[in-house]
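queue> holo job accepted (adenosine-5'-diphosphate)
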Amino acid sequence: MNSVIRVEGLNKSFGGKQVLFNMGLAVQPGEMVALIGASGSGKSTLLRHLSGLACGDKHGSSSISVMGRSVQSGGQLNGQVRRLRADIGYIFQQFNLVGRLSVLRNVLLGCLGRMPRWRGSLGMFTPEEKQLAMASLERVGLADYAHRRASTLSGGQQQRVAIARALTQRAEIILADEPIASLDPESARKVMDILADINEKDGKTVVVTLHQVDYAARYCKRVVALKSGHIHFDGSVDALDGVFLNDLYGGDLDTSL
Ligand code: ADP
Ligand code: MG
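queue> job finished
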């Protein structure tokens, strides 16, 4: 099967300090993969490179391709990367909603990457787009909140709105960077249940960074563990053991399930 994400030889430095070392990773369509590792191990940097968000950066001789399209190293933000971004739904730890806009408007923003710019800049959405946005809100259990201001929702609800936005975007790949790090356990479980549901029922590929190892073990068959910018482990969650994990986190293991 062709990988939906393929990274080869990825090195990354910030101001002379190398933070990713010769990373290689292949993700198959429909996988749900957890990226784990201590704070500073390079999870977010790796995820940003997968998304094309870092495509303007120089990253040496590496090759990254997503959905068969090359994310050029040191390249310009070109049409190819724009199209790529339309296929990737990015979920942030801090939700990144526009707080003063309604929940529905926020979800509709997911359409922007696929509509003519003039229509986007006028905020003119078609009935089909509005229908899709409402169906996406329904999917995350927030249809009743469509006309509320986004900033009035709880953190867990805002994160579910962000997922509805990715659904409305019709993203093929969901990249989620610490989506549950700011949430209480119950909200965290709801968010992870929704991501797992999208992965299982819609076959979307999900790559999620998680500080909490037990969530990774519960939701993801495959775990990729980063340590100091190296891929330290890549395999089945069943192969992880406590000694390995304690070493990975230098004794700072976070379990909260
Ligand atoms: P994680 O997400 O696993 O916590 P990051 O990818 O955020 O790790 O960071 C990896 C390393 O890169 C850290 O040492 C961090 O300080 C460094 N780093 C990340 N982003 C930047 C940046 N924009 N400028 C300088 N250093 C950075
Ligand atoms: Mg991070």
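queue> Strands lie at 5-14, 17-27, 32-36, 63-66, 69-70, 88-91, 173-177, 205-209, 222-227, 230-236.
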